[in-house]
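Board notes (copied after class):
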Amino acid sequence: MNHLPSHPTLLFNDILHSPTAINWRYQDQAGLSDRSLDCLQLCTKEVLLRQHVAANELLPVFLNPFDCHLLGEFHLRRSLPTLNHGWKVGKYPLNDKSDIRSFIKLILEAHRYALIFYQADKAAFSTYYKKHSIIHWAIVADVTDSSLILIDDTLVKDFLINGQVGIIPWSHLDQCLRYSNEFGVAILERLPDSSNETWETTFHRIIRDSVHAMLHCGGLARLQTFINHLYSLSHEQLNIYLEHLEFDINYYRKLRELWLLAVVKRQIPRSLLHADWAEELIPLCKSWSLVMGILMKWKKQPERDYRSKLNEYLIYMYDLETKLMRGLEPLTGDLCH
């Protein structure tokens, strides 16, 4: 901690020089954590809180429509999240990777923080190294001539100094860039005329997009295909993919947890909060937790065959996903005032 730079004008300087650690595993005052938000959303949350956005205004920024995609037959995916309430992520992809150091410094000077995104399976400083081929997001809190200071929940312990704050030598980032297909720097941007749309209108659009994607554009059908494919695999085949399955399903279920949190925190517009869909969220989130639990148990006991129990939980989950969409469907008409 004594070797960290001190630049009071930077947005996260207080975190670098405080015993209080950032830990996204635990809920903040708004109830948000890594249970309901992904890495980009968690980084966004920290920036917005330091730009004087009230904690009780954060949750609606992150609510997104439900959808379902498959990468091949095996990898469960959902669309990358977007931001509401007039916020967007402004990306600056780097064509010249050798210019990364000066570019990050320029962004820090201009905006007091920077976000970076990188290919996690190419980053030796990440616990995802050689495991998960995803684009991961982190906060650049500061830089020195020899390193950059990241707020990142996937850092290997050797790089951590306090909570999720770590020091990464520039040489390690350079190596990551050398093998990455996608890397860049980003900031949050405020859209013009961002206050014109009400939260009721925004959430109504989220409902319509969810129903369209899941019921009318094959989302539920793809989820069923995913379940059927898992059921067709042998015990030995599934054993190989357990870690990837756990990772994919954990990411996919986060949005369900966020919707449930929005209901609990009374962040859903009253005109659109109907028991027909809201009451399905508790058992739905529990069903995804059961799936996660059996995968974690299977990882610890790879010699055991949990396929039957996994399929039982997946079928139960699929039924609840369908009920949720059927409960939302009547709300897709025009808003009534």
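Comment from the instructor: The beta strands are 69-71, 75-77, 87-93, 114-119, 135-143, 147-151, 160-162, 165-169, 184-190. The mean pLDDT is 93.
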